[in-house]
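Weekly modeling sync, notes
Attendees: S.R. (lead), two postdocs, one rotation student

Agenda item 3: backlog of single-chain predictions. S.R. asked that every request posted to the team notebook include the full sequence so nobody has to chase files. The rotation student volunteered to paste the first one in as an example of the format we agreed on. Action items at the bottom.

Example entry:
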Amino acid sequence: MKTFVTIFEKCENIHLIKDVGQIPYFMHKTFAYDSTIVTLKNETDYKYLDSEVKGLKLKFIPKIKFGRVSL
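Predicted structure, as returned to the notebook:
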């Protein structure tokens, strides 16, 4: 299976129905790609994931703190 990955640190639920989410969703729906958005966990619930962009996956990366700086 082909893979399509989008890295977008600030992804929130609303971004799933904008270009950030729609491009990988289109690749999944039209060309059967395994599409994933890699992001920080910016919200507790991504409601559009189950209703608007079914099949799109989110993978969360941990937040890292170095003193006052968060990565």
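Discussion: group reviewed the output briefly. The chain has one domain: 3-70.
Action items: rotation student to repeat for the remaining queue; S.R. to check formatting next week.
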